[in-house]
Amino acid sequence: MTKARTEAGPAPEAIRWFGTTWVDHDGGYGWRRAAAAAGSLAAAAAGAFVLRLGFQGLADAKIGGFVTAIAFVGFAVCSVLAFQRTWKGFSARPAAAAENQGLYAIGFIGALLAYFVRSLSEAPGEALHRREYEAALARRSAARPKSAKAAKPKKRRR
Questions:
Q1: Within 13 A of 22's CA, how many CA atoms are on the CB side?
Q2: Distance from CA of residue 31 to its chain's centroid?
Q3: Mapped to the 3 state alphabet, what secondary structure does 19-88 carry?
Q4: Are residues 93 and 128 in contact, defined by beta-carbon separation less than 8 angstroms?
Q5: Contact (CB, 8 A) for 133 and 23
Q6: DSSP single-letter state for residue 15
Q7: Cα dist from 133 to 4, 12, 22, 87, 89, whole Å
Q8: Could you give the CA distance from residue 66 to residue 106 in angstroms, rounded to a whole number?
Q9: Are residues 41 and 116 in contact, defined by beta-carbon separation less than 8 angstroms?
Q10: What is the pLDDT of residues 112-144, one digit of tens each?
Q11: Measuring CA to CA, which of 27, 123, 143, 153 is 20 to 30 A from 50?
């Protein structure tokens, strides 16, 4: 535990799957990162398999190559956009109105791959949370008096 966290002050925000282990990289942080990377890659592979079954169903229905191509391009574009938005979400808080859950539902493979790639270097969102936490610590230390004398003025003698 760092000195800043032992004193009363701003508490670090927990990250899903990591809690607050990202602050000091303790409590199994490395294993959690490895598990997050492996889990997101496995989920992306399972999702790709399910999409493969869906496209096989389109081919078996003999609806034509044009409709299959449109569906494929739609999933590919949504995956790329979901990857991009997920990646940007790790370094900046997204605007509330900018969230498009339909895009993430269709392009879930892209979001899972972004989570996988980020897990290889840090906990997803760690840089954003660390920057916010350190800024809160800096604000707290700037607001705190420098010495005990500044906190307790001398009593005047009568």
A1: 26
A2: 17
A3: ECCCCCCCCCHHHHHHHHHHHHHHHHHHHHHHHHHHHHHHHHCCCCHHHHHHHHHHHHHHHHHHHHHHHH
A4: yes
A5: yes
A6: B
A7: 11, 6, 11, 20, 17
A8: 19
A9: yes
A10: 999 999 999 999 999 999 999 999 988 888 877
A11: 123
Model pLDDT for residues 19-55, shown as the tens digit of each residue:
889 999 999 999 999 999 999 999 999 999 999 999 9
Q: Which residue has the tokens 């339909």?
A: 102
Please tell me the total number of residues recorded for the chain in this structure.
158
Residues 6+ apart with CB under 8 A from 126: 15, 18, 22
What tokens does 25 get? Answer: 């990289």
Give the span between the Cα atoms of 49 and 46, in whole angstroms. 5
With tokens 């449109």, the residue in question is 70
Alpha-carbon separation of residue 37 from 89, 115, 156 (angstroms): 17, 7, 64
Residue 107 is encoded by which pair of tokens? 């392009």
Residue 138 to residue 135: CA distance in whole angstroms:
5
